[in-house]
Design a protein that fits this description.
This protein is an alpha+beta fold. It is built from four helices and five strands, in the order αβαββββαα. It has one domain. Helix content is 35%, strand content 20%. The protein is globular. 18% of the residues are buried.
C-alpha cells in the first residue's frame, strides 16, 4: 500500500507513534514508510516526538521499489497492474522502544528483506 503523501498525515503519524512508544509497557516497534520529503518546520516538530525511538532509516530509491495498489476492495472498472512505481524515493523509519529493539533488532538482513519485499513478484 502506498504511504501518505501529505505533510499533515505524516505529522500526525509521527506524533501519535511517539506518544504510543512513550506510553508502552512492553515491546513496541513500527516501520513508517513515507515519501522522501522536505522536513518542513511542522514535520520537524512532529518528528521530535518519534526521534528518541529511531533505530534506523533506510531510503528505497526510485526505480528500485514499488507499492501495492490499495484499491482492490473497490471495483474501478480498470484492469491494470497491482503495483505502481513511485516517482519519489521512499524513506523507511524504524521506530522502537528499548524492549522493541531488543525483541526485534533492526539488522541489515531484516532491512534487505524488507526492501526486497517492495518489489513485485516476477
Amino acid at each position: 500500500m502506498a504511504p501518505p503523501f501529505d505533510h499533515a498525515s505524516v505529522c500526525r503519524c509521527f506524533t501519535h507513534i511517539g506518544r504510543l512508544l512513550a506510553a508502552a509497557t512492553g515491546p513496541m516497534s513500527f516501520v513508517v514508510v513515507i515519501p522522501v520529503m522536505d522536513m518542513s518546520k511542522g514535520l520537524r516538530i512532529a518528528f521530535q516526538h518519534a526521534k528518541p525511538y529511531l533505530q534506523g532509516t533506510v531510503v528505497a530509491k526510485v526505480g528500485e521499489h514499488q507499492y501495492l495498489m490499495g484499491l482492490q476492495h473497490r471495483r474501478t472498472g480498470a484492469e491494470g497492474s497491482l503495483y505502481w512505481p513511485p516517482e519519489k524515493a521512499s524513506a523507511l523509519y524504524f521506530l522502537q522502544n528499548d524492549e522493541g529493539a531488543a525483541t526485534w533488532p533492526v539488522t541489515q538482513e531484516i532491512v534487505d528483506e524488507l526492501i526486497r519485499e517492495f518489489n513485485p513478484p516476477s
